[in-house]
Amino acid sequence: MVNDSKEDLLFFARVCEKARRYDDMTEAMQKMIQADANLNSEERELLAAAYRGAISARRASWRSLCYAEQRVALDLTDQQIQVAEEYRTKMESELLSICHDILGAINEMLLPKASDAEAKAFYLKMKGDYYRYMIEVAPGEERPAVMDLSKHSYQDGLEIATKEMKASNPTRLGLAHNFAVFHFEVLKLPAEARQLAQKALDEAMAEIGANEVAAETDTVLHVIREALNAWKHKDFAADA
After folding, report:
1. Alpha carbon 72 to its chain's center
2. Which residue numbers delimit the 14-3-3 domain (predicted)?
C-alpha cells in the first residue's frame, strides 16, 4: 500500500481475503475505518469477513486444545500441564485482543457514524457476536458482565431490525439466528432458542410467499433451518 487511500485499502483487503491473510485484512480495514467510518454495505461485509476470518480459526484451535487437555490431563506431568495452560492462555489473549479491537471500532467509530437501520443493526449484531466470543474465554468473574453486553447488543439490534426492516432481510434474519445461538449456547435455554429461530423463519417465509428468494436471504434461512434441526431434541449447548 503506497498511500493508504481508501481505494488502495479496499483493494488490499480483498487481496488479503483471497490469500486468507485475515490479520492483514483486519489491519487494512482498521486503517480505512480511521479515515472514514461511514461504511457502505460492501465495506461492512468486508469488515465482517476480515474479523470472522481472524477469529474463526483461533476459536477452533482453542476448542481443540481445551478438548485435548481434558482427554490427556491424567497422563501429563505437572510441567506438561503448565506448558499446555500457558499456551492456552496465550491463545485466549489473542482471541480477546481481536474482540477488543473490533468492539472498540464499533463502539467508538462505526455505530456513531451509522445513519440507517441496516448499518445500525449490522454493527449491533457484530457487537453481540464478539461479546459472545469473549464469553468463551473470559475469566469467570467477568463473564456475567460480558453476557449482559452481548444480550443487550442483540436485543437492541433486533428491536431496530423488527421496526424498520423486512422480515426477510438477511441482516434481521442473521440477528435472530445469532441471538438464538446465544440463548442455546450461553444461556442454556434451548426452548427459547428454538422459539426465536422458528419465529424468524415463519415471519420471513410468510413475507416471501411464492416470490423468488434473494441468494443472501436463502443462505441465512438455510442456516436457521439447520440450527432448528440440530436443536430439535437437545437440551444442552452445542457448537455453532
Report:
1. 31
2. 6-240
Output the nine-digit C-alpha cell for 240.
455453532
pLDDT of residue 213: 83
Beta-carbon neighbour count of residue 98 at 10 Å?
21
Indicate if the pLDDT at residue 34 is higher than 60: yes
Q: How far apart are CA 154 and CA 177, in angstroms?
A: 10
Q: Where are the beta strands (DSSP E) in 94-167?
A: none
Q: Which stretches within 138-214 are classed as H helix?
A: 143-164, 170-181, 190-208
CA pair distance 162, 142, nearest whole angstrom: 31
The percent of residues in the chain predicted with pLDDT above 90, rounded, is 79
Helices and strands (H and E) in the chain: how many: 10, 0
Contact indicator for 13, 28 with CB cutoff of 8 Å = yes
- Cell matching residue 90: 496465550
Q: Which residues contact 97 (CB under 8 A, 6 or more apart)?
A: none
Pull the grid cell for residue 154. 442483540
Q: Radius of gyration of the chain from Cα atoms?
A: 19
Sort 24 into a burial class: Cβ within 10 Å, 0-12 / 13-18 / 19+: middle
Could you give the CA distance from residue 111 to residue 84 in angstroms, rounded to a whole number? Answer: 39
CA 11, chain centre distance (Å): 24
12-26, 66-80, 117-131, 205-219, range with the lowest pLDDT: 66-80
Q: Which 8-state DSSP code applies to residue 75?
A: G
Q: Please state whether the predicted TM-score (pTM) of the whole model is above 0.70.
A: yes
Residue count (the chain): 240
